[in-house]
Design brief:
The protein has a two-stranded antiparallel sheet. Helix 2 crosses helix 3, helix 3 crosses helix 5 and helix 4 crosses helix 5. The termini are far apart. A hairpin with an 8-residue loop joins strand 1 and strand 2. The radius of gyration is 28 Å and the shape is flat. With 161 residues, the protein is mainly alpha-helical. The protein has a domain of 90 residues. 60% of the residues lie in helices and 2% in strands. It has six helices and two strands.
């Protein structure tokens, strides 16, 4: 699970979030905007809820208007992106540190070279190779289009080129 997500979730008890997600219409309570956003994050991350599912939840279960519901969904998606960006950045730095440690500590030249190659890829120093499998390196251009109209077996095909 995401570290930042867990930190945000620790501010609210799982019981509070569970109550928001699983409440019935007759049990409506006043929840803060932050509680609702964290519930949407939890629905998306843990239950893989779609936008439609979250919209239905906000409109039917919580009773919000459509415009406000979309605004909350947008905020929750932004929050999820921030969480993933933080996680990616942390993983990136951890991978760099591990590779640098391998490069500095190993005596095996081949291992050191492989680690340096991986580090260079992480840093974007090597562009990924592009492989052309369709045209053998030739330019693809359309010079002629042939349209055939197929009719029943009795009639012949007509060529419209």
């Amino acid at each position: 699970m995401l570290i930042s997500y867990r930190k945000d979730m620790e501010t609210k008890t799982n019981h509070q979030i569970f109550n928001i997600i699983n409440m019935k219409n007759h049990e409506k309570k006043d929840f803060s905007k932050e509680d609702i956003i964290m519930s949407l994050v939890k629905m998306r991350v843990e239950k893989f809820a779609t936008t439609k599912t979250m919209l239905d939840f906000l409109m039917r279960e919580v009773g919000y208007a459509q415009t406000y519901s979309y605004e909350l969904i947008k905020i929750s998606k932004t929050r999820i992106n921030e969480i993933f960006r933080e996680e990616h950045e942390e993983s990136f730095h951890n991978a760099m540190a591990r590779l640098e440690e391998i490069i500095e500590s190993t005596k095996n030249e081949k291992t050191r070279l492989e680690a340096q190659k991986e580090l260079n890829k992480l840093l974007g120093l090597h562009k990924p190779q592009k492989v052309d499998v369709t045209s053998n390196g030739k330019d693809i251009s359309v010079s002629e289009i042939v349209v055939k109209i197929v009719r029943s077996n009795d009639e012949e095909e007509e060529d419209l080129s």
